[in-house]
Design brief:
single chain; 229 residues; alpha/beta; Rossmann fold; seven-stranded mixed β-sheet; globular; binds S-adenosylmethionine
Length: 229
Amino acid sequence: MTPLRPATLQAIARIFDAVDYGALGPIYCHEGGDAFWEERRGPCQELGSNLAGVLRDRLAPNGRSLYVGAGIAELPLLVMETMELNRTVAAYNLRADEVPLLNNACAGMPFEFQARDAREAVGTFDHLWIVSVLNDPECFPELGSLSSARANPVTFDPDAFAVERRAAFALAAGCLQKAARPGLVTTSVEEIPWITDWCQRQGIPCVVEDEDYPTAIVEDPVCFIRIGA
Ligand SMILES: C[S@@+](CC[C@H](N)C(=O)[O-])C[C@H]1O[C@@H](n2cnc3c(N)ncnc32)[C@H](O)[C@@H]1O
């Protein structure tokens, strides 16, 4: 892995400096948002930049990436893709209050976050990024607790889980059907089963890389899956 270019690192640093962390605090945390960002901002920028270098080695120039659930953690990746590989990125996030904050920080960059369902994205993408979405406890409380092995067997609600699992199946399928073949999927280790299950049902070969990489916000390690090769 070669490091990102100085101009890319400068753009990432400028964007991280421009983020309104005060406004972002309550979006990411029920309480203690200021302390959370004071502690996580640096690691988020650094680990994201390292991961951007790793991702760059796996992507071709001039392609298209679909980012599902893109937030602060994804900023270095989006900057790398557009500045170093001249790729088009479509970044979706359903948190309507976070999206304007992200777009303000990224003013002047050749991408805009959209507060819409990523399944509305048009066309195919040779890279799909879906990290900490299919196990997000905010959207899927029972499923999220099961995925991260925090489920309490006394209070776990299997009926609610079944509903959430159907929604996660539909979301995974709606996004994966936009992936070109061959293509690359970046996801968290906890979300691997959603990707491999969909590929298996479609008869599409997929290979999960052995190595995974740390992240700083939800702290799920991230890995790469090659599909349709
Ligand atoms: C737990 S957050 C993860 C954010 C970021 N990927 C990270 O790792 O820090 C999950 C995000 O997925 C977004 N999300 C969930 N379903 C989505 C969908 N159908 N389309 C776009 N974004 C979605 C939520 O709005 C939220 O921003």
